[in-house]
Amino acid sequence: MPPESQHHEISAFRKADKYYSIMRKSNLPPVADNVTFDSYPIPHNRSVVDAIKNWKFGPKGLYLYGPTGTGKTGLAWSLMKHQAFFCGLSVLELSFPTCVLAADTPTPNIYKDRVDRVNEGQPAISNLVDIFVLDDLGMIYRCDAMHSVLNDLIQPRLDAGLPTIFTSNRSPTELRLYMGKPSHDILGEIFTMSTKIRLGGNSIRQRMANNRKSNK
Q: What is the spatial distance between Cα 61 and Cα 55, in angstroms, rounded to a whole number?
């Protein structure tokens, strides 16, 4: 059973008439349904959780980084839901690796359609929402598409002064080295317009897996 405060937060979300409409439009997966700030299980990161929860909408976004499994994506989902339901802001999440894979294939796909919109002078898909989350930045094989995807999705938001929430396993320095010179300029803008927050501690995923094994 979730803690009492988490139970109330989830209930508040689900009672909203627009709950499932927001979940669908935001591209959040079903697993995000029960994810809230109160469900974050690592106590020594509590101050980090509070800093993310208290983030105020404005031109400066967040860059959440740290080892795999420390809850970066879950906290980004929690922030999206909190801002959507309690602040009335529009939200959208996309996976960076998924977008790159789609752009790096010769067949028509959803991402190419979105790029075509930009080329035709229409708003980028990421620019149609107040808060955009780009998950797993830099977690993809090196290819030309990773640079164009990053620029296509993020430059319009930087130009419009809209915030983006990034998650990555790589620190800012590591990401610069990995992405290389073609992305240095936009990464410089991203890091200037993002509050950088590192999440540490043991892997939440591993802890959950261990709990499942011990309960068998």
A: 9
**Bridge partner list, 132:** 92, 164
How deeply is 186 buried, as exposed, middle or buried, from its count of CB atoms within 10 A (0-12, 13-18, 19+)?
A: middle
pTM: 0.81
Give mean pLDDT in consecutive 10-residue pieces for the chain, a chain of 216 residues: 46 55 70 82 79 93 94 93 86 89 68 56 70 93 89 92 96 96 96 94 62 52
Q: For 107, list phi and psi in degrees, rounded to 5.
A: -85, 150
Q: Among 120, 126, 116, which Cα is nearest to 159's?
A: 126
Q: Which residues pair with 48 in a beta bridge?
A: none
∠ Cα 123 128 134 (to 5°): 105
Q: Find, among 7, 6, 10, the residue nearest to 33 by Cα.
A: 10
Q: Which domains does the chain have, with CATH numbers?
A: 4-214 (3.40.50.300)
Side-chain-side CA neighbours of 147 within 13 Å: the count stands at 12
